[in-house]
TrEMBL record:
<feature type="binding site">
    <location>
        <position position="32"/>
    </location>
    <ligand>
        <name>NAD(+)</name>
    </ligand>
</feature>
<dbReference type="Pfam" id="PF02866">
    <property type="entry name" value="Ldh_1_C"/>
</dbReference>
<feature type="binding site">
    <location>
        <begin position="167"/>
        <end position="170"/>
    </location>
    <ligand>
        <name>substrate</name>
    </ligand>
</feature>
<comment type="similarity">
    <text>Belongs to the LDH/MDH superfamily. LDH family.</text>
</comment>
<dbReference type="GO" id="GO:0006089">
    <property type="term" value="P:lactate metabolic process"/>
</dbReference>
<feature type="binding site">
    <location>
        <begin position="137"/>
        <end position="139"/>
    </location>
    <ligand>
        <name>NAD(+)</name>
    </ligand>
</feature>
<dbReference type="InterPro" id="IPR011304">
    <property type="entry name" value="L-lactate_DH"/>
</dbReference>
<dbReference type="InterPro" id="IPR022383">
    <property type="entry name" value="Lactate/malate_DH_C"/>
</dbReference>
<dbReference type="InterPro" id="IPR015955">
    <property type="entry name" value="Lactate_DH/Glyco_Ohase_4_C"/>
</dbReference>
<feature type="binding site">
    <location>
        <position position="187"/>
    </location>
    <ligand>
        <name>beta-D-fructose 1,6-bisphosphate</name>
    </ligand>
</feature>
<feature type="binding site">
    <location>
        <position position="107"/>
    </location>
    <ligand>
        <name>substrate</name>
    </ligand>
</feature>
<dbReference type="InterPro" id="IPR018177">
    <property type="entry name" value="L-lactate_DH_AS"/>
</dbReference>
<dbReference type="Pfam" id="PF00056">
    <property type="entry name" value="Ldh_1_N"/>
</dbReference>
<keyword id="KW-0560">Oxidoreductase</keyword>
<feature type="binding site">
    <location>
        <position position="172"/>
    </location>
    <ligand>
        <name>beta-D-fructose 1,6-bisphosphate</name>
    </ligand>
</feature>
<feature type="modified residue" description="Phosphotyrosine">
    <location>
        <position position="241"/>
    </location>
</feature>
<dbReference type="InterPro" id="IPR001236">
    <property type="entry name" value="Lactate/malate_DH_N"/>
</dbReference>
Amino acid sequence: MADAIDDELDLGSVVPPQRRTSKLGIVGAGAVGSTMAYAALMRGAARTVALLDVNKQKVEAEVLDLSHGIQFMSMAEVVGSDDVSVLADCDIVVFTAGAKQRPGQSRLDLAEATISLVRNVLPGIVEVAPNATYVMVTNPVDVVTYAALQISGLPPQQLFGSGTVLDSSRLRYLIARHTGVAVQNVHAYVAGEHGDSELPLWSSASIGSVPLLEWDGIGENGPLTREVRDAMAREVVESAYRIIEGKGATNYAIALAGSRIIEAVLKDEKRILPVSSLLTDYLGISDVCLSVPTIVGSRGVAERLAVPMSSDELTGLRRSAEAVRSVARRFGF
């Protein structure tokens, strides 16, 4: 009887399906790229991590160093090369390569050199990984993301920037430190440009389930007054400059923020993150890449959430959009 069933189902000819594995590509093996590879490996975000860098000796050294620690992480493979083919068939590609920001230099000052690099490198990557989701991390991320869309021809949902994911983390850290609550219980977004014109969305922020603007001063540091909030907003903008002046680059926090975006895509989490994407009639704002709370999943960016904003916040967001748009136009985009 069993033989008859086996014959009927032809079990011997059934080929087990291949296990789907994830491949993360990182362009640039500098401070940000190598740290992002490390963070992604530590979090078990991808089965294969592939590094691309023009400096062959550097990228091979980073791969070897990371590979020696695989025993202490989730099982993964690390590869790297100066040949773009190393990124073939990636599920997600994170672009970290770009001009290095010098002390006192604004992110927008970096635009020309970084856009030139994107123009030279990105088309070849898209050719070997046409179905990947692309995340631009290099600064100035909003302008570079807009330029990358024009250069690559990819659909707007498939390519986006890391935006203000890190800035929002910085803001939540400052709020948590002031109020004495866990940062995980602080919910607040920074929107707009990842740079000097960005703005915290105070009117939609909350601590636990308490609206932030109604926080009654629990904790030893007192209430979140207008002056306190303004100081926090300045600290969010200026902290990157302080870090760059002190150690030459920001790498740990942006790598963790990037790994969070990577997981949202590879695991199709549909997580709400303030990434920078091409806006079309978002609260009247169009034709610019800007950060707003957005649903992120396996297809890249989906809906942008029309979060409540005060009139001042909406004015600030539109001002930020114009600042980014004017720089993009300066470079022919």
